[in-house]
Amino acid sequence: MNKTLLPAAVLPLLAAASQTVSAADSGELEQMSVTASRVEIPRQELGVSVSVVTTADIERLGYARLLDVLRSLPGIAVSNNGGAGKVSNLYLRGESNYRTLVLLDGVNIADPANTQVATQFQHLLAGDIERVEVLRGPQGMMYGAGAGGVINIITKKADAPLGASLAVEAGRYGSRDTSASLYGEGEQWDYRINLGAFDTDGYNSQVADTRGERDGYRNRTASAQLGYQPSESLALRAQVRHTDTESEFDGCFAGFSTSNDCLDEYTQGSYRLSADYRVSGISNQLAVARQEIERDSIAVGASTFAVDGGIDELNYVGNTALAGGELLWGAEYEQQEFSSAFDARELDSLGVFSEWRADLGGAVHYSVGIRRDSLETGGHDSWRSSIAYPILLGNHSEAKLRASYGTGYRAPSPFELAYNVGEGAAPVGPETSHGYELAGEYRLAGRLQLELVYFDQQIQDAIIFDYSLGNSGFGAYGQDDGESRSEGIELALSGTLADRLDWYFNGTFLDAESADGNQRLQVPQQVYNLGGSYRLLGERLALGANWRRVANRLSPNPDFFGPAVALDDYGVLDLKASFRVSDSLQLNLRGENVLDEDYREVAGYNTAGAAVYAGLELTL
């Protein structure tokens, strides 16, 4: 690995930050995380890496799509094939998004009808999102298959007896974004209904399309949730979410030729019922969930590949205080299904897990957990341990040293299993991963936060497509004999100056290699974000900015069989201004790529130029 990971520009920033912060106590409440161990834990006691996005972070730049919000976090890189609604991939510490588990209000929203079971990030809107927690590193012990990292998305809940909101925005590329909500709460009930509509005429997505016609996108998302608490010990919640999209794109197959008259239709529905019950000091949560996906690729008006998929889940988690610590245990059953005109397949798994968390003398917090999963392709064991040592440096500052080690795995997808059966090839087993991290954190009275993380993680027996396998000569899925690796440093800085300026800087410095020793495709080796918000006029006017720098990225050749393409480094600046006219009305003006940077995230695909959007938010 290249050991020159920290750029020289970071050092003056560190020095400046340490000189300008105040030692005044901010009076902040202790932050909690629910993703690290599936129950609320003070972040001070965490020995693992968790990034948090709040409502304020989402509002700071007002992105319509959640993927643009996630780009600003450490450890994350994104690639997009030509605009809104087009194929997008998220890389967490260099790992593809089919190795990252994504939960939306507790529901696994990955697409089991895809080649690999991966979340379709390009269809997630940000309008109703309250909070996102990103758990980095292998997390198979707590979450099972595909959890090389975890992104936990939590939507907004009712926070008033009766309320409603409406937000509209329009701008370049014929883009229109509208969202509305109705919510309320009482002594025992709460409810919320959200509607979202995003439309854009888009731009020409593929460089090879010399006609230059636009490739548009339409998204309709609706969700509803209802909570009922009949007693202090019992809480019930029901929720439903539905997304319907159409995305135009270039380069689909129409018979024996390619066409740029292409449309992808995608529908996703998810449902969940949960009950939280506490008795005799034991907390219990039981949940049943289902998500369904229908997808159809259309070329020149005719369907070319229609698939359906679904994930059924039954989850139980319990925890209790015990012998000076806390014991957590649980079980999960999951069934993934995939069907098309050519084949169908189901894949079942059953996992049981337990974790013990405690402290030594009230000073050192530690955890250790183990999990056993039974799969159709065999069993698998995962485990994780962590340690955190908070250090009080004075009345207003504290530090923390922490370390963790975890393992994970990815089970073969229903498609991979079905494809090998059709090719007469041997079934593939799970690929495995393990990794560790060492970190230091520093906090000064809520005025300055610093986190520095070193991580090293490997994948063995990676599932790959091998053209030498199968009976037809077209290839089949096999497993790599080598070991791929991701090693790097994540730096995150944030702070407040003069109670008006909130700022942040984060950088990911990564060395990600495939089993053959070459740099992984589409994974940039450096990603930086620098931004913040400034409030004035009695906080009625807020200015926000984010500058993102991406460097050293290789992309697959658009000609498929050519050598990898080294993409140019680039920087993108996004700005937003919002003015609160009254308690119920806010005006917004924002710009994306305001410097009109000409860049590529994927070789052969265009990106958006400078764009301005204007809108308003009304709250009743």
What topology emerges from the helices and strands here?
Blueprint: H1 10-20, E1 32-33, E2 41-42, E3 50-53, H2 55-61, H3 66-70, E4 76-80, E5 88-92, E6 101-104, E7 107-108, E8 110-111, E9 118-119, E10 129-135, H4 140-143, E11 150-155, E12 163-171, E13 175-185, E14 189-203, E15 215-231, E16 234-249, E17 252-254, E18 257-259, E19 262-279, E20 282-299, E21 302-322, E22 325-340, E23 344-360, E24 364-375, E25 378-392, E26 397-410, H5 414-423, E27 431-444, E28 448-460, E29 463-466, E30 476-479, E31 483-497, E32 501-513, E33 526-536, E34 541-551, E35 553-555, E36 565-567, E37 570-580, E38 585-592, E39 611-619
Parallel strand pairs: 6-11
Antiparallel strand pairs: 1-2, 3-10, 4-5, 6-7, 8-9, 10-11, 12-13, 12-39, 13-14, 14-15, 15-16, 16-19, 17-18, 19-20, 20-21, 21-22, 22-23, 23-24, 24-25, 25-26, 26-27, 27-28, 28-31, 29-30, 31-32, 32-33, 33-34, 34-37, 35-36, 37-38, 38-39
